């Protein structure tokens, strides 16, 4: 595997380093020394030094060959020899892991491999004509996962020419030595001096970065914080390199440099804090966990571990997961957090192993199986040599080696191409099997014969109905059966034969109980039952004394443990009961290893037990545990380990006086909290959030100067009138006071040299600001809706060059907008700029053209600005608000192709619009108050448009036939819509709307609706909550295509005397919205598409649809009957003449037999299309005596059209048209049709009736 990373230390020309190398080389030249030991701290650069020595020894001819063994990898005998063979360019069986072409020969035995290695070394020794003929064996002992003696024994036959160079950590025990070895006293590798550290840092960073003023100013301080450890220097340098490369430098990079310089957090933690995504963070901590226990691993195996743990879910193809994993791996290497060694083995930077996981849920809350925690030492390499190909990751082997396959990871798309019962033939030795998103109802029976299976993953197996065969797998260590929605239960004895099971994940199962045999899993360490929504309790856990983690988060029905006391779980580290119905916690006394107690969303929990004895607790999360009203005063005494306390959304009215030494305190949404006790003891507090604690008024402290680490303060939407002094909080970066309506003056804020965000939006009574020029690092300043604000005339923004967002919308200090407009030349990093109320022209506003990164610009009410042309170059704009502007030099709006929102309200200068076709992303368009002369017909092509404000339509002649679709929200009340919008000779237009707002408007004037509905054909799309994210373009196009199809179905488009309405979807479970219900009462022709009701009666019968003459039903997948005998059926069908039914997959009957005969006597036209479950059409009691047209197509089970008995007529007098197409089981019509003129029968192989038979047949009932 190749990498462009600078993960090895760059060569630095420094005298101390060169002297150390010279000393080591002199020892190598000493024939009397056979073993040399070098010792240093983790991160000191031992591996780098070893590489340097090896290269120099080769150059000077001190050895005929060098062999490198990383002792932080747990090699078995074969893997050690294969590693040596690869270094000697001996192509072993498995040299290229990626090339699984099925042509690999049988794996050679160990003796043969040793012989080839020996022959190669003898050849190298013989070829060396000059110099000492030493074999140099380098043991990189960092991690110490192997015994040095075992490695040296493999080279015992070369003892006379063997030199061993050993590198180990300072605190490791001295290595064992053979009596024959003559070993030096350990040579200490010293830390770099501050000057040497800075030189190395400058060498590693990219040239572009090293020339930045910010880096030059901070490099010495950063280097000093690295404490002389090359590893720390390298990690930070690579983090900055990556940050600069992917974030385009600028103020954000300078902020990151400043963060590294001034934050008290250890330097390696800072590099970790710069990781950009949760996926990368999860993969990093998994690697730390794995390498800390087992050492290095081949990069393919590491990626496979990440996939098995579910870090890249969801995905549909395993190749995508592998590719994402490879990208994550490369980025972690590029950042210096992981290192790539010989034979493509990956290890973590050793200095990172001592880091504490700061995440709220930690490793146990993010991994699906926790293999690094639950695997034993002899099973760490169970994945072995793997490769990925064609939807699978599996053990690398040849076509004759099925019995050697030990690992298979396969996705559902790939497995569906296989025959399940034969796929695993010959794989009886399988140890790891992972089905990812399988489409199986039943598992292959061969699975139960896998006697060596250790890990089984069945992830997101939604169709799986039975797992009984898994119970026979006696060797399982880890088992995941997740997302099996169709699985109704697990056998009681399911776990009886799994004594070794250590990790069990049943996430997302809908089972109501767990097997009692779970109580016998004495080795179980991880128990994941998250999202098991039907689970109310768990079996007795007393025998499960090895449990380290219990996750019941999202088990919405869970109420209690059967064990009232769980203090026997002495190894428990995490207990997650979030979003359960638990009312009372079990006794938790003496759980000395518990670090995370997560009770988020436990709305039934009324009391928190005393936590005093949980000495190692790090995280307590009670978010939205609304019934918690108080916490005992002594709960947090002596809790020095507690770092995260989240009480947001609880009902507490006061806090305990002592809160330990927490770093993060979240009290947001605590509606009863009025004050906070003194925070003097919280010297490590970094984050304080009281947002939306609507009764909170004050702090006990007059100053926060003791909170030196505080970086985040959020008091938004509280009742604070005065704040403690914030002076000299040099690490404070975010101050959020949004909606603090009682706050008039800010406290002293001197010394906030790193303040990045100041949000005062909605502080309506704020009168005065501190001088803004002291906040030189400020990136976000939001003063919107500070209507009382006044600023000093000498205020300036010229020192706020880091600003990315400046919001002055509705700000009372309009002069500040003028100041900003005059300062644009300095504000080149702005991405969001919202000015307001500028009443005079400012020539320097032309500098806005320099803000090339601007994505949002608002000039609302800035009527004084005259020149709009500089805006044209701002091609990245996504939001542009020009409301109330009065430009004389007009901007060309056609240049803003990236816009999502465009506001032109009251822009009198807008008299015509550019073509809208280029605004393909536009979601909001406001044209109210413009002077446009033509209607913007192109809005129908704006597939993302959701909100449209039209100008007055009084003076605009509208051709409504050109308007095919309107967005969900339109300003109907403003735009002067009137019933006279159409000309008499105009064709009747069809318009699709995506919401019910138009009906709310029309509801106010029923006569208006009555007139309008006869001129327009309206199709309305109701999107339910689950479909809210569906692409509006897809919905609109479905409706438009439906309209074209609709015109072929006898729908009365052209008849202007009919009220027509099409409704697409179901927005509410209890029926249609009220606005539509009132419209339906008068509608004459109604179409329901994709309605979720069980019948037409339930959809329309309760509304009182009295005038319906035609009903069209399409793709209503839940309908089983059209009319079912309800009271409303008589009224519903009284005037019905046309019934058109299409694509109703569950429909079993049109009329149920209890429907009253007189209900549908006016039916004249009936069309049935694609009704696969319908067997009989008309029961004997429901003969449609006035039916004239009957068309039936693609009804696979239909056998009879008219069922008769002795009580009914055998003739339909008026039926003149009968079309039948592809009805494979239809055997008879069942009735005489004397008026039949059009009889078209196709692909009805069992129907024998002819037109003449139907017309001329004799009456047999005597009633016709």
Automatic annotation (TrEMBL):
Xref: SMART domains: LRR_TYP (SM00369)
InterPro entries xref list: Leu-rich_rpt, Leu-rich_rpt_typical-subtyp, LRR_dom_sf, NB-ARC, P-loop_NTPase
Stated name of the protein: Putative disease resistance protein
SUPFAM superfamilies found in the cross-reference section: L domain-like, P-loop containing nucleoside triphosphate hydrolases, RNI-like
One Pfam family of this chain: LRR_8
Keywords: Coiled coil, Leucine-rich repeat, Repeat
GO molecular function, one term: ADP binding
Domain called NB-ARC: residue spans: 18-205
Coiled coil: 103-130
Organism field: Tripterygium wilfordii
